Amino acid sequence: MARLLTLLTLASLETTLVSLPILALTSFDLPWPFLLLVVALGVAADTISLRLPPRMERTALAVGAALAVLLVLARQFGGPLAGLAAFLPGSNGLGLAYTLTLIALFLYWRGTRVATRDSLSVSAIFGRGAAVMVVALLIGPILGLGTPLGSAPAMAHIVGFISLGLLALALTHAEDDPASREKRLGWRWLISLVIAIVAVVLIGVLAVALLGGGATMEAAQNLLRLLIVPFALVGGLIAYLLITFLGEPLAYLLRAIFARISLLQNLMPQPEQVTSGGNDQGMFETVTRLADGATFLMALIPLVIIIAAILLLRRRSQRARAEDEERESLGVAASLASDLRDLLGRLRNPFARHLVGLQAALAALRDDDPATRVRRAYVRFLLRLEARDLTRAPAQTPAELAAAVEAPQAVAALTAAYERARYNPAGVALADAEGAERALDSLDDR
Question: Are 42 and 109 in contact (CB under 8 A)?
Fold first, then answer.
């Protein structure tokens, strides 16, 4: 039951993220419950495809995407056949049908990703969605598009977005914590959570109602216009400089080139003029077809991207998470530079023999300081054990390994020096390095 509530909350949040910009920037007749139905269709298709054999999952997703598109087109045009007829060449509703197809596929794709959301991804979605919401609600009234900012539907979307975002964050965070999952997802915890969210939202709504109004809304829009004016002035100045220093010399150069070409044409003997209006008409039709083809190809790019995201980004390829597993967000960007250096080093000589394991570790220890010398001696010791078919188990400590091999005194001295070099490299002296190398040499004599 708790998982169903989480999925419903996430689907509602994804719906609001799309419904609010549609409400603020367009006049489409797409109510929020209808958009939620399209997202739910994506959730259902994703769930069903995971229960099918791998060879049939993309077919199921494609069928669901087609149903989502037909559903949205039927809502706007009065029926699926009328929606498909809008795609005919020369139809007045071609642009509208194309836009609605993109919206339907985007909603469906967001629905297929609902079950993969965790607290980190929901936090990112909530933050980015808040930015999109602010931009859409501010740009819409300025351009005279969509629903006014102070209207009841717009306020309902704002309140719903904040409430759903907070609820989704709390639910996904509770699911990500295995230790307290059962305790937190009880009915008492859920009721307390809903009451807390409602209280926070009501306080915000009351504050806006007391301090807001038509004058406040108009002042906010005027303030936004004042904030945009400096950017417009800077942009106009940059455009003026570009036109003055680049546009005018370029225009002068083009005029000189065309004048020279026209002069050369006047000096050349003129052939007999053959008037043929059919050739001009054929050339015009060719250019028109080329322009239509280019427009068609550009319109296909967003569709191909969304369809590829639906069919290729599959949850089946992800590793199943155990019930008692805790997940952490690792800072993998910190090692990005070293990974790129290693990759470029391999590409520099792709046919060379690349070292792995202890050989690679030994090759990386190139410095001549005492700590590196001690570590290099210990790695050589491990390599010599490998040559004798003796390896250290992953769970075996260096001290346990020292007790399991011959010459325990020399190995113990080498191990002690290695542990000092590993955990306190600044405290390793030159005598420690020389002692480790002598211990290694004594092991070689055996």
Answer: yes
Give the C-alpha distances (Å, rounded to integers) separating 297 from 66, 99, 226, 304.
Answer: 20, 15, 40, 10
Q: How far is CA 345 from CA 218, 310, 342, in A?
A: 60, 36, 5
Q: Tokens representing 419?
A: 């542990």
pLDDT in tens, 94-128: 888 888 888 888 889 888 888 888 778 888 888 88
Q: What is the pTM of this model?
A: 0.53
Give dist(CA 11, CA 43) in Å, integer: 8
pLDDT in tens, 192-223: 667 777 776 666 655 555 555 555 555 555 55
Question: For residues 36 and 13, what is the distance between their CA atoms, to the nearest angstrom?
Answer: 9
Task: Name which of 416, 411, 445, 417 is nearest 431 in CA terms.
Answer: 417
CA distance linking residue 191 with residue 34, whole number of Å:
27
Does the pLDDT value for residue 139 go beyond 70?
yes
Among left, alpha and beta (phi > 0; psi -120 to 50; other), residue 144 is left
